[in-house]
Amino acid sequence: MSYIADTLENLVHQTAFFSLSWGNYLMIAIACVFLYLAIAKEFEPLLLLPIAFGMLLVNIYPDIIAPPGADGSAGGLLYYFYVLDEWAIMPSLIFMGVGAMTDFGPLIANPKSFWLGAAAQFGIFAAYFGAIALGFNDKAAAAISIIGGADGPTSIFLAGKLGQTNLLGPIAVAAYSYMSLVPIIQPPIMKLLTTEKERKIRMAQLRPVSKLEKILFPIIVTIVVCMILPTTAPLVGMLMLGNLFSESGVVRQLKETASNALMYIVVILLGTSVGATTSAEAFLNLSTLKIVALGLIAFAFGTAAGTLFGKLMCLLTHGKVNPLIGSAGVSAVPMAARVSQKVGAEADPQNFLLMHAMGPNVAGVIGTAVVAGTFMAIFGVF
Q1: Residue 282 has what pLDDT?
Q2: CA-to-CA distance for 287 and 347, rounded, in angstroms?
Q3: 243: exposed, middle or buried (Cβ count in 10 Å: 0-12, 13-18, 19+)
Q4: DSSP secondary structure string for all residues of 88-125
Q5: Which end of the chain has the lower number of beta carbons within 10 A, N or C?
Q6: Pair 24, 59: CB distance under 8 Å
Q7: What is the rounded distance in angstroms from the CA atom of residue 323 to the CA atom of residue 330?
Q8: What is the pLDDT confidence band of residue 292, given thresholds at 50, 70 and 90?
């Protein structure tokens, strides 16, 4: 009888209830909120759902991301996924998938979109100086600032390259969370900075883009950008390779693999491993709260800067540019472009801005990668 009692007592004490802190329970509650947003509200569920589930797992069973022991014992399952994030493998593969899924035609048809994508990067520099003011060192500030571009893969890539792996988890979660919340964060800023008359502006149809242009574009961008900033090659190179798979028309199998099977596999591994970095011990501290606040401020600044530059282009073109497309200059592809379309359609249901907004959106992806490469060049990272 005592044997049975001892066995039951051991089993009870093996449960997580006896080892979790109040912080773990708080993070489990946050994970459940994220799961609700992903499933019920469909806020970027492909990203938010695996991140939230990784957050749930690590706060129930912290060893799931534990590194290998000094005695040679194996590490936790998600530790090996996380190493691929640190090595910049996952972000680069994500960029290849994005390139394969994205049509660069609107950007080629309207090269002025590059200016809108560049303007939206203002949020990055606002976050950089804000992080410096809050006491982060220069490399940490640079890693944090990329959140302002609403680009999760680039945030992870730069944090790893600058040796800020201790901040990688909060940075990645903040970046992906704000990417998921684009439909909530952006519209109020866009409406505040534009008039109803501006939101109703109908833009002229984009010119047709030839197949040759679409093939040459990724090749030329790769040569130009990577010659100037070689450290951007893993991101820009993979983005353009994926697009070349799509536009060349001769490697249909590679295009389908990069944009479907491989892309979704990488999203699962990256999302769960990023979520698993949010244990209560690592996440519930003042530095994390600063990062989350800086990310929100940076994202708001980026959205505002893109919209204001759109207003300037509207003025210079005598009303031919709808300022709403400027907000799509952040890198959340294609969600930010869809938000531009949605806000424009609220003012005029017959106004179709999606393809016009995709130009700045794609330019923002390239721009964020260029800013990351610039930071690496400044700090001498290769």
Answers
A1: 81
A2: 41
A3: buried
A4: THHHHHHHHHHHHH---HHHHH-TTHHHHHHHTTHHHH
A5: N
A6: yes
A7: 14
A8: confident
